Amino acid sequence: MTVLLAVVLGAAALAWWGVRRLRGEADFFVAGRRAGVWLVGVAGTAAAVSAFTFVGGPALFTVVGAGSLWIVLSAPLTGALQCWAVGEEVVELSRRRGILTVPELLGARFDSAAVRGAAAIVVLVGCIATLAVQARAAAVLGEQLLNVPATTTALVTMLATAAYAASGGMRVSLPAEAAQGALMAGAAVLLAGAAMVAAGGPTAVLATLERARPELLGPFGTVPPARAWAWWLLFCLGTCAQPHYLQKFLFLREAAALRQLPAVLTLALAATLTVWLGLGLAGAALVADGRLSLAATDDLTPQLMLLLGPWAVVVAGVAVLAALMSTAASLLNLAAAAVTRDLPTALGRTPLGLPWARGSTAGIALAATAVALLSERAVALLGIAGWGFFTAALLPALLVGLAWPLATPPAVVAAVAAGGAVDLGLEALRTTLPPGLEPGLAGAAVGALVLVGGSLFTRRQVPGKGPEP
Amino acid sequence: MRYAPQLAVLESRQKPRYPRPGEGSHCGMARIDKIAIPGTAILLAGGYLVAALALPALLPVIAGGAALAACALVLTRRRTGGLAGVMLGIASWLAVGFAGAWLLRAAPVAGLGWILLILFLLPLPFIPWLYARSFTLPAGSHQDGEQ
């Protein structure tokens, strides 16, 4: 309860500071476009690393072993990949046209209100789903670790985040996310090390697992290799389609900062991901030894922290709260922008002002918390679904659409719709799918085919303008 | 799409990177890109669906190819020998890393060690460094205060 009280007080102080410092919409949505590379890089990683990394990831390791690591093995590449594939283009386009949101960026690229509207709908739906993951993680954290009722923890955490996100927008959320990111990275390294020590050290952990559960230590664990490759690709390319990642490119003070951005992103991400491996390996060894018993896989992190002692419970509680609050703040801002700027503009109306953006931030936080508390799906599955939905719907438009000048707006809208629909349809059939068929990737593949085919078809409809060879 | 008047004026002074829908081809774009981008997209998207449904052995090739193709989009903006070399290096790293993981699939500790060392730890400092080395601001790019 003390941790939650500290969160509420911290959020109240940030909200007060935000109300005093906010100067306008550019401050609210893109932090005044004045951020340096360290602020953007660490905050970007904080927004990227959700509670899934601390709770769902290590739990998944105890079930499928090293196979789970294929979700994060692309980390050395993703910082540079984002900049090469979309970041440089996003920075150039956004600075040239004064763009404040990701749907606005796509709308400006294609000079199309329909594209902007379709992207805004995707952002709104995906943000609420991903916010629900954060709220659910808060509920698990409260119940298992902080000894606070799940509903109370979820509501307090989400409303505290909404308080400062609504009052100061990204002007306040960005430095808060950077602080949370630094805290997460430090806590991740500390907890991973402590867990390994508690399990007897790396050599003993490996020996235990090699004896009791050797299948976890193969390069693919118990995951079919096809699924491992698909996870690697989904979480590699998917970084180019997550709006809360792309949003950070809009904050940069100068384009030259891109040069160092992958290094900062990679460093912060690698430090934070140690918790996945450390807690996963140590937890699996402790479970194999019989020193830890789990009623459900998501109980691993809470149970392991209780084993380490009260200090670990506090550190993990703070780190998980930081992870989910930093992700939630970015998503709340994106969803509020979709509701108050992108959708009204796509419908030919004037964007709603800051008071509406603030109100919708609070409303969206409440809606996402309600979804989370009513959902029975595990944190891990919700995390993959949220990521996959953004990948399926937005990746073709961002990768092919931004780079290929012959892409047309109707084809992009069709690709967004087809990608999102395929992902949602396949998610419903997930248990029956072949191991290599990830719904998010399948949606993106179908979307890419629709985008290319549709562009060639619709360009042919313009008199005298056949498709370019 | 309506823009603020001052932005519209600013845009009109600049050479557009993208043609408006229905306009002619992009004047500065190499002809090969017009074929390479959609061609690669169709190949990889179709290839993924076929591999996932019927030929899972192709998945590492598709996964590595798709990641590499996404990185190589930078070549549509600036083409240098250095960047081409970086792409070749990334392709080699992915090929070696994926092949090693497959070959060690029945070797518990060695397999884990391989993916952690070759696919994760070794490239951690190198890829951001390669990015920084190959980074150049495009001519006429917008710096601070130019919005």
Please write the string of helix (H) and strand (E) elements of chain A: HHHHHHHHHHHHHHHHHHH
Strand content of the residues of chain B, in percent?
under 5%
Tell me about the largest β-sheet of chain B.
none
Distinct helical segment count of chain A? 19
Report strand % of chain A. Answer: under 5%
Report on this structure:
The complex is a heterodimer of chains A (469) and B (147). Chain A has 469 residues and is mainly alpha-helical. Chain A has a domain of 327 residues: Sodium/glucose cotransporter. Chain A is 77% helix and 0% strand. Chain A is built from 19 helices and no strands. In chain A, helix 8 packs parallel to helix 18 and helix 14 packs antiparallel against helix 15. The longest helix of chain A has 49 residues. Chain A is globular. Chain A starts with a helix and ends in a 9-residue tail after the last helix. Chain B is mainly α and 147 residues long. Chain B has one domain. Chain B is built from 6 helices and no strands. In chain B, 63% of the residues lie in helices and 0% in strands. Chains A and B meet through helix 6, helix 7, helix 10, helix 11 and helix 13 of A and helix 1, helix 2, helix 3, helix 4 and helix 5 of B.
Question: Which structural traits does this protein have?
Answer:
heterodimer, A: 469 residues, mainly alpha, Sodium/glucose cotransporter, globular, disordered C terminus, B: 147 residues, 0% strand, disordered N terminus
Helices, strands, pairings?
The complex is a heterodimer of chains A (469) and B (147).
Chain A: H1 2-21, H2 25-30, H3 37-48, H4 51-54, H5 56-64, H6 75-97, H7 102-110, H8 113-146, H9 150-198, H10 202-212, H11 225-237, H12 243-249, H13 261-289, H14 300-308, H15 310-346, H16 354-374, H17 379-403, H18 409-428, H19 439-460
Helix pairs in contact in A: 1-9, 3-9, 3-12, 3-13, 3-15, 5-13, 6-13, 7-8, 8-9, 8-15, 8-16, 8-17, 8-18, 9-13, 9-15, 9-16, 10-13, 14-15, 15-16, 17-18, 17-19, 18-19
Chain B: H1 5-12, H2 31-53, H3 59-71, H4 81-103, H5 108-121, H6 123-134
